[in-house]
Every structure is written in C-alpha cells, then in structure tokens.
Amino acid sequence: MVSLEKILNDVKNWVREVGQIQKENLRKENMIINTKSSEIDLVTEIDELSEKVLINAIREKYPEHSILSEESGEHKSVNSEYLWIIDPLDGTTNYAQGLPIFAISIALQYQRETVLGVVYVPMLDLLFEAIRGQKAFLNGKRIEVAGKQNLKESLLSTGFPYDQQSNHDNNTNYFAYFVPRARGLRRLGSAAYDLANIAAGVLDGYWELNLSIWDVAAGILLVEEAGGKVIMLDDKRGVSLIAGNTNIAEQIHRAITELNEE
After folding, report:
1. Which among 185, 188, 161, 165 is positioned nearest to 175, based on CA atoms?
2. Which residues contact 257 (CB under 8 A, 6 or more apart)?
3. CATH 3.40.190.80 location in the chain
4. 200: closest CA among 255, 252, 124?
C-alpha cells in the first residue's frame, strides 16, 4: 500500500493550488456554462478547470489509480485497488453568486474503504484532513466533534436537493420540525463544509438528502475520525445521511424516522 502520509502531502498541495484559482476567479462575470439535473444545479468554468487540474495531478503522480469526479464521471484504471473521489468545487451555486462559502473535497478509497479525506475551504484557508485510524485535523491541530447532548442547545445544518421544486421528499418537513427544537439552523450550501464543521465541533448536527458520494466521502471520514457518528438513510434517494456526535445524530435520526411514519 502506498504511504498515505505521502499522498496526503500531495493532496494538500493540490487543493491549495486549486483553491488559489478559485479565489482569483470569484465574482468573475459570465462563468456559468451549463446546468445538470435541474435549472438550479449549476456548472461553472471554474468547476471544470478545478477538476482538470486535480485529475491531471493525480494522473501524473498516481497513473495506476482510478478516479471518480463530479463533472466528468469515472476514469477507470484496470485492476486498481485505489479510487479517488473528487468534488472540485462543492458549493457551486454559492460560488456562481459570489458568496464565499465553498470547498474542495478529495477522498481516497483503498479496496472500497475510504482511507484518506481532505476538505479545503479556500476563502478561509481552512484545511481539514484525516487518515483512517489517525484522527482528524484542522490546519494541523486535532479536532473533535462537539459534546452537546440535546437538540435545544444545538446548532444544526442541512441542505435541500436540486429537485426540491418537483419532488415532495425535499426536506422541508424535517426542516420545519427542527426549527423550533434547535438553538439554530444553518444552510451553508456545501455538504463537504457542513461535515467538516461537524468534525471540528463548530456544528452539532447535520442531515441532508439525495447527495452524491463525491459530496460526502471525505467529510464522512473526517467526522468518524473526529469521534462522531454518521447514520446513512438507506431508504432515501441518493446518498442521504445524518452526522453529529452519537447522541445528537441518534436524536435527529429518531425524529426523522417518526416523521416518516406519520
């Protein structure tokens, strides 16, 4: 197995390079070039440029590895036990609006298990990192999930699926339930950053529906290595999950389960 510490150093260099590109182009005019699953599911030229830089770097350094990336799909390498999972710009809508809340998310799987995860938030220069079994860190300092034990003291975060206007399973019922029961609710617009904030104890609980694996692969590892719990909602569409410390994650899960039964 390749040294994960060596790979991590490479990834940190890559995300800083791509982060600089994103910072330099923020608020550039006419950058939206396409939509994907719906009119609100955007792609910008910086999504594609960021992805190109990352894929080229991986191919140059680890040509035998496979890659799964949001914009261009899967790039298979025959018999490879390694798979890179990349979201080159998580929070595209924010980016396209000029709102400086977005992240770069990179995970590496070995034999289908995520063994390395990095989430980088360029505008704040926040670099979250984890290697399986070696804890989670933010800018070199160890992080842990928060210790809140009840929802009324908790700051929660969530998001809404891109088909929110056409599919009734769009999280609005869960959102309405938690609004009066939590200290506060945030909608940051980047699942990778949400999960990183759970790992760092900045947010206490998070749930979201119908995501994709590139949105969350690195963030899930961060949460787990920071002592948190991730609950997959397998009965929901796409990748749907809950994250927090064990107690808060389970309270959110119980509430969602009860709402589903009504």
Report:
1. 185
2. none
3. 151-261
4. 124
Give per-residue pLDDT as tens, 123-137. Answer: 999 999 999 999 999
Angle between helix axes 213-225 and 191-199 (nearest 10 degrees) is 0
Statement: residue 39 has pLDDT above 90:
no
Mutual angle of helices 45-61 and 4-25, in 10-degree steps:
160
In the block, residue with structure tokens 């220069």: 125
Of 131, 95, 215, residue with least CA distance to 206? 215
Question: In terms of CATH, what superfamily is 4-141?
Answer: Fructose-1,6-Bisphosphatase, subunit A, domain 1 (3.30.540.10)
Give the contacts of 42 (CB within 8 A, at least 6 positions apart): 32, 34, 35, 36, 92, 93, 96
- Provide Rg for the chain, Cα atoms: 18
Query: Please, are residues 95 and 46 in contact by the beta-carbon 8 Å criterion?
Result: yes
